[in-house]
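Page 47, continued from p. 46.
Same chain as before, 255 aa.
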Amino acid sequence: MSNIMTEPTCIEFNDVVAGYKDFMILNKLSFKAKRGTITLLLGPNGAGKSTVLKTLFGLLKPRQGSIKLDGVDIAGATQKSLLAQGIAFVPQGRNLFGQLSVFQNLELGGITLGMKTTHERIPEVLEFFPRVKERIHSQASALSGGEQKQLEIGRALLLRPKVLLIDEPSIGLSPILVQDVFKLLRKLADQGTTVLMVEQNVKSALKIADEAVALESGRLVLHKPASELLSDPNIEHLFLGGARPAAALVPEAVV
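Result:
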């Protein structure tokens, strides 16, 4: 895993307020994610984890605060601009064109690159996913749930993103496929990609993450190395709801 102390900051939230119409979900949220690391977002339902990803990817515009990519404020930028700057998003659920082939779905993933570049990159992406490669001409709807999720991730990787946002990648996958996806995310981070992940399979995700950021009511309540949190007896409170993390944990937060 990365030596976090020596890595520069890639993503930085500063007092970000965001939500839907009059309902605010993120309440002056501030945290940092280092380059080439996996940051796992934790918290009970409604804590604001997925909202962080959506706001970072431009699906929601912050009402207040700044979001910086390598020191440049990108708050409110369009998704097209964010894609061009190297941010890719794999949302929760299935987001494929079912009646199109695997190859055609990959082509659409590279639409901002142009067909020549896309066709050059598709073979390198498929090397990560041998099973998807075997089914390159099959309809996307004919793939298993695990293969569909791999295709979604592959489509994002066409952009060679510097930042990969991924929301609940393990949903609907077998334990073996979950581990395959986690290993891939770890490999990408080790190669320099910054990964922000929301994941319900918390203990397994902590094993491959570098940092853990816990949210409650859209605010930061804890930020510490994932390895430390993995052995913390209060971990259940962070993602199953219940009581707020013990007060003794909060002063240790790295903001």
